[in-house]
Amino acid sequence: LKDWLISRQRYWGCPIPIIHCPKDGAVAVPEKDLPVLLPKVEHFQPKGRSPLADHPEFMNTTCPTCGGPAQRDPDTMDTFMCSSWYLYRYVDPKNGKEPWSKEEARKWLPVDLYIGGAEHTNMHLLYFRFIAKVLFDAGWVPTDEPVVRLYHQGMVCDETGDIMSKSKGNAVSPSEIMDEWGVDVCRLAMFAFAPSDIDIKWKQDGLSGAHRLVTRLWDLFEQQAPKVKEASGKGAAYKPLRQQAHLLLKRMTSAAEQPLDFNTAIAEIYKLLNAIDASKPDAKTDDEKASIREVLEITAKVVAPLAPFLGEEFHEMLGGKASVFKSPWPMFDAEAARADTIEVPVQVNGKLRGKFSAPAGSSQDQLKAMALALPELQGLTPKKVIVVPGKLVNVVV
Predict the structure, then answer these.
(1) Which end of the chain is more exposed for a tag (fewer CB within 10 A), N or C?
(2) C-beta of residue 358 within 8 angstroms of C-beta of residue 342
(3) Do residues 107 and 49 make contact, with C-beta atoms less than 8 angstroms apart?
(4) Do residues 63 and 23 touch, judged by C-beta distance below 8 A?
């Protein structure tokens, strides 16, 4: 980073904490007088110079060094300067004595995940990292890199692939969509299109699909939640539904922690709904009610980050008093997610020829025998059989 001119001749911005004295020159505002607050100004239209220069009650002051008459700097800081350190204020937002406590900074920093477009790479992120290193050298932050992980989200494009923008006149109004369809439908449609780091072409029919998903979820909770609201404990009934619920939980947890591929979590929601529709659960015993409640609890909490209003409603239907976002994230149960049977594809010389179902945990010899017994392989003379447990069987002839 070369010399960076941070002064701007406009009203909106942080005042530059420098006082200009005829005798002592440019003098820094003493630390006890910081921050210099931006005055409330009604008229700040441009006149070819800094608007603050026309406000003597702000400009006129005394020199901290000699006590003589002096003037404040009329310029304000570039907003890039503010956006280079704003994140640190979040660790201690009510501190009235200093920008933030160094103790709080050690507790919270660095930021785990920073989301922003790739267009910021050669501007904001340069300044952002530069200021982090300055603050680290000064002892204000614990690391010289501000964030652990940077994530570039994709852009929303029109049907031709052009990025939506007001200047191009091709933007879709989010407020109009939310007024018509609701916030949750809009969010689910966006998440379902593609992984979050991929540019997407906006499709209006995606809203209809998301609305149908919301309707299916609502119907599920409206029908099942009253039956199992009072259930407690851990049930063992409805094994396929509990399995699919925990697979959904695993996928959503993974999507939230690393790649942000929420579209894969939505795909798992569909799988769970399809499994529920197929089994038509009618919980009557305590064991059955506890099992269905577990499935619904997982669903409510997985849905909440994607469709927060829906998640809050579902959580309340199950008896939740506080916000769903104040409740603990469900614990993944690997045993519940384990399938009793697996489907194993069979290849011949690398090309798919058939598949079979086998008990989970079958040995390589058992999988080999089941593969060779398939009708599609009769009459062949295998030279070699390669078994990848739980994945596939490849027969070389």
Answers:
(1) N
(2) yes
(3) no
(4) yes
